[in-house]
């Protein structure tokens, strides 16, 4: 009978230690997962969220309020609070201002993109592909860089490995040789935002 009490006590202690060990292991696994989570994944978790937008603080010191629409390998596309659209290189983001609910949503585990499912290919597309598509469509846009306080308006003519050729022209004017004020070669590393 005494052995029964002894074994019951030992069993209770072991179960308690296993429960504590399991909680500690789960907490450590969550810390490791958080340590390995890139900003891209946290932004992807917020893509398509309705409700208040997020405020991006860019490396040039500017801030922009957006609703994230799509997140690619090294860029995001978003709706601006004023109704416009923009493309932002992830490297141009200095910080995010999020609500408590957005923080929680951004920390949720994202499912691995499955081939053939929506978003699986977009997650692999680099900003160069997006810029080449804008150039092909001849979309007029504002290019904002760290080097200039005001946006430069024009149409992308070509996109290189680390730069783009921009034909600068007046807003509202079509990109024609006669309307081009100047040609600029812009380093992609300097671009903070492209507004469509």
From TrEMBL:
Superkingdom, natural source: Bacteria
The protein, known as: Uncharacterized protein
Organism from which the protein derives: Gryllotalpicola koreensis
């Amino acid at each position: 009978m005494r052995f029964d009490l002894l074994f019951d006590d030992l069993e209770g202690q072991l179960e308690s230690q296993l429960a504590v060990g399991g909680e500690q292991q789960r907490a450590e696994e969550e810390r490791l997962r958080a340590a390995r989570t890139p900003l891209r994944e946290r932004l992807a978790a917020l893509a398509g969220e309705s409700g208040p937008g997020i405020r991006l603080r860019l490396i040039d010191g500017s801030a922009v309020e957006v609703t994230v629409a799509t997140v690619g390998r090294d860029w995001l596309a978003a709706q601006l609070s004023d109704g416009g659209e923009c493309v932002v290189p992830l490297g141009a983001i200095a910080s995010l201002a999020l609500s408590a609910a957005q923080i929680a949503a951004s920390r949720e585990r994202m499912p691995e993109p499955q081939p053939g499912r929506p978003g699986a290919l977009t997650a692999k597309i680099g900003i160069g592909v997006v810029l080449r598509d804008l150039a092909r469509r001849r979309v007029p846009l504002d290019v904002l860089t760290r080097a200039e306080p005001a946006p430069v308006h024009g149409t992308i003519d070509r996109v290189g490995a680390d730069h783009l050729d921009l034909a600068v022209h007046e807003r509202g004017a079509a990109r024609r040789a006669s309307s081009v004020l100047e040609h600029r070669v812009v380093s992609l590393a300097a671009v903070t935002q492209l507004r469509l």
